[in-house]
Amino acid sequence: MAYHLPQLLRRSAEQRPQATAVCARGCTLTYRELEERSNQLAHLLRERGIQKGDRVGLYFPKSVESLVAMFGILKAGAGYVPLDPEQPPARAGYIIGNCKMKGLVTDSLRLGRLDRETTGRLALQIVSGEPAEKELGNSVSWESLASYRSDRPLDLQPVTTDLAYILYTSGSTGEPKGVMLSHQNALTFVEWCANAFHVHPEDQLSGHAPLHFDLSVFDIYNAIEAGATLHMVPEDILIFPASVAKFIETHNISIWYSVPGALVQLALHGKLTKERFPKLRTILFAGEVFPIKHLQRLAELLPDVELYNLYGPTETNVCTYYPVDRSRLAEMEALPIGSACGNTEVFAVDEQGQRVIHAGGKGELYVRGPSVTLGYWGDPEKTRKMVVPNPFQPNFAENVYRTGDVVVLRSDGDYDFLGRRDNQVKVRGYRVELGEVEAALLRHSAVSEAGAFATADPVNGSRIHAVVALHNGSRLSESDLQQHCALHLPRYMVPANIQLCEHLPRTSTGKIDRERLKAEVQPTSS
Amino acid sequence: MGKMEPALIRDWVREFIMKIAVRRGVPKLADDDSLTSTGVLDSVGIFRLVFFVEETFSVAIGDEEITSENFRSINAIQEFVLGKLDEA
Q1: Which of A68, A383, A447, B49 is most buried when burial is the number of CB atoms within 10 A of its CB?
Q2: From the candidates B38, B63, B65, which should be mutated to test the interface with A, based on the most A CB atoms within 10 A?
Q3: What is the pTM of this model?
Q4: Is residue A510 part of a domain?
């Protein structure tokens, strides 16, 4: 049993050195090449001062080098932090500062977008492509990797609970928060998937999700664990269902994992037929609720493909799953999130603090087991709120994770997802805290009040809307405000509509009344 | 729809796309810039654009034609529309 993620790669590199590990934009790496290049990166990182427990960022579009970087950073004993390559540079800069990142693997284009304060914080920058103008003495080129030793770096006595990576998600207080995942957290999920989905060396896995999104953990580590091949889906075809369908066909993808939205588009516009994808055997989806109508369509188009609904917050990766039963789809109103994955326990706690044991009982879902996050980077207070002592374990200390998701227990033992306890919504599978959207709007000096709310959207899960009041005498248009948001928020968080009003409706306690906003403000179509 | 000036096609497409782009924090866009990597188009926006092209230029666009080759930039869309008009 592996207890450190690089062991998965080492084993496959020993067993299948010549097999293709990863393929992206026409570039491929064999298992031996991936093992050796990541060793070289680990040597470079160590030589340049990266130490055990340091954080090293990844800030470039996904490519075969992404895997070299991830494994190289882990082998050096550090944790990696994947940054959304398209997010506003100011947000990337915040994350770099927040986790006290010591090194950054990036390209010259993106390095050039970061401000001097941010780049000055980084002790080491590894840059691919043309050198940037403001390159400092702490930069080395990615190409210089080739001059480093390719044997395995000295073992630093890794422990399975060491930090492996930090994934930043939307934060309700206005800044993104870093969810820390250990080797054990990731391996718990990867080992369960390997058995549950029988991933084998001949499999061709899709890499649809970006690396800062936890769906990519399955794609990468389960491909490597099995000695299979990972095919990164290029970002520029993602919105074109015909191009994505062609990709699945051309690369003989056998296991596909994505958010439901991508599958809805494929079912509607991808010209899917059973004959076109003879190798496709398993489709996994997660991140948001799959509308039943579209899932039925997908199930009809691909009658021989196994479909699984995976559920779980970044803090536990995936904690429940539901194998889709085609014969029951027609009568279903909503898709269950199912029951706990292996090596994981889930239970619901009702408003009285009692464990839900009877069918029909509702409560907040709690997760117990080795997949539960180490907590939030640099935020012990938030960690204590969400990673709490197990209320049903009186005899010793044990933590469980409160998901904030409200579920109902079904008579068959599965759970159904009902909604959130807070103001988090999902857009294209990404978590969006409406508070972060409001905080971004309030950063504009002309904005006095801001309220955000979401409405349902069949493809993207939800659509974000905002209502804003301006200080006296200020004039701003909707698109001015959207442009302002785009400087602070990833694009999926920028409100589709922003309306102006004199004052926002408030509750008796003075908080913005989102329910009234939603009811009173008619979103205009855009 | 008879013969259309290529420049006119580009201008109409550009006008439509810039309305979306500005709202997404992309105030400037060259005719050859990628509409996806700049984030101008998302999975909903692409179908609005297809609908606009169909209505404006009276062409029918099949699902198999909604690809990155045909819609990656303003120039690519212009080329694609010209091709469709020639077919008609």
Answers
A1: A68
A2: B63
A3: 0.92
A4: yes
